[in-house]
Amino acid sequence: LSISLVLVFCTQVLAESSVWKIEKGDSVMYLGGTIHILRQSDFPLPAEFDKAYSLSDMIVFEADMGKANDPSTQQALVTKAMYSDGSNVEQHLSAETYLLLSEYCSANGIPLEQFKMFRPQLIAVLMATIELAKFGVVEEGVDMFFFKSASNTAFACALISIGI
């Protein structure tokens, strides 16, 4: 319900653009507000993104997009999101919250045992991903779209990441 409300209210927000142009002297920088996952219907992106991209000499990402789909990076993230002390999520949630998690898993055909080893933060991300998928939000987002575009052109030499 919360995710549905966020999606409904977010679609009602009106803005001139989600790309801002910042200037100081002869220097120009574009800052794009991006979403990490989108629906197929969200493409093509607004023209402001393509314009900023085409006028730029360098593109900077929030995270190292080249490593985002790397299996070793994903494994490291999953390992950090798991309990290493032998405990499980049931021992770290209130009885009421654990019951809600159990009900959610049951309603969505997910064996609760698959979630027990994970910390609540990862479970929340997994649940959000499941709910977003129900709305068709499964495609890569703006950042990966432009990373792939830059990687497939001469722009690739200017790729920079600022780390996670």
Tags for this model:
164 residues; alpha+beta; two-stranded antiparallel ribbon; two-stranded antiparallel sheet; 8 helices; 6 strands; 46% helix; elongated
Low-pLDDT sequence parts: 156-164
The rounded Rg comes to: 20 Å
Average per-residue pLDDT, rounded, comes to 82
Approximate shape: elongated
Helix content: 40-55%
Spatial strand arrangement across the major sheet: 1-2
Task: Work out the strand percent.
Answer: 15-25%
Could you spell the SSE succession in H and E letters? HEEEHEHHHHHEHE
- By secondary-structure content and strand pairing, the structural class works out as alpha+beta
Total E-strand runs:
6
Biggest pleated sheet: 2 strands, antiparallel
Secondary structure tally, helices? 8
Distance between the terminal alpha carbons, to the nearest Å?
A: 30 Å
Description:
The protein has eight helices and six strands, in the order αβββαβαααααβαβ. The longest helix has 15 residues, at 120-134. The chain has a two-stranded antiparallel ribbon. The chain is elongated and about 60 Å long. Strand 1 (19-24) and strand 2 form a beta hairpin. It has helices at 2-12, 47-54, 65-68, 71-80, 95-107, 113-116, 120-134, 142-151; strands at 19-24, 27-32, 37-39, 59-61, 137-140, 159-161. With 164 residues, the chain is α+β, with helices and mostly antiparallel strands.
Provide the fold topology.
Blueprint: H1 2-12, E1 19-24, E2 27-32, E3 37-39, H2 47-54, E4 59-61, H3 65-68, H4 71-80, H5 95-107, H6 113-116, H7 120-134, E5 137-140, H8 142-151, E6 159-161
Parallel strand pairs: 4-6
Antiparallel strand pairs: 1-2, 3-5
